[in-house]
Design goal:
12% of the residues are buried. The chain starts with 14 loop residues before the first helix and ends in a 29-residue tail after the last helix. The chain has 196 residues and is mainly α. The chain has a single domain (1-188), classed as Arc Repressor Mutant, subunit A. It has 7 helices and 3 strands. The protein has a 3-stranded antiparallel beta sheet. Helix 1 runs parallel beside helix 5 and helix 3 packs across helix 4. The protein has helices spanning 15-21, 24-33, 40-47, 51-63, 100-127, 133-138, 150-167; strands at residues 38-39, 68-74, 79-82.
Amino acid sequence: MHRQPKIHYEKSLSARELRGLAHPLRFRILELLREGPATASMLGRDLGESSGATSYHLRVLARMGMVEEVPDRGTRRERWWKRPADRQVVLIASARADDAEYEAAGARMHEMFIRRDEDALDRWIEVRPHLPVDLREAAFIGNNTVYATEEELQALTREVITAFDRLRRPPKDRPPDAVRVHLTFRSLPQELPPSE
């Protein structure tokens, strides 16, 4: 039987780079640039931040190779930024037991994701009473306990990421009634595997 490759953080990321990405504003900038090129001012407006703050974080991301300037676009005062076409980062809970620094950086990333989930839940509670009934009913909060092997969890993670990616579209490809939705997925083993 052919085994699919395991899903891990992009191998080229160092612990320092991973720590750099574990910053909520930098991560949101990367998410927004997935929709298309933007300037620091445009990102600042979308994120409710100053263009100085977004400009600083864009430079940090550029040093990490996560963003790059758009050639032949913009001015000396206003630069355009994009995500490199050949740099696809999949940030999945993945451990490197042989690298304590990397493990610590991964823990920071997990903390950031958990904070994002908490913020999204708070926002959901705030807007829920004002949403149309059909949109409220389309939302889902739930969990369950299952029993799965490592291979089954890997396959599930691939399926979920593929489903998420289908809905991550640039503005021009979104249906006119599409709204911003926070999707989260966790598969958290609760016990040690049986000894062989």
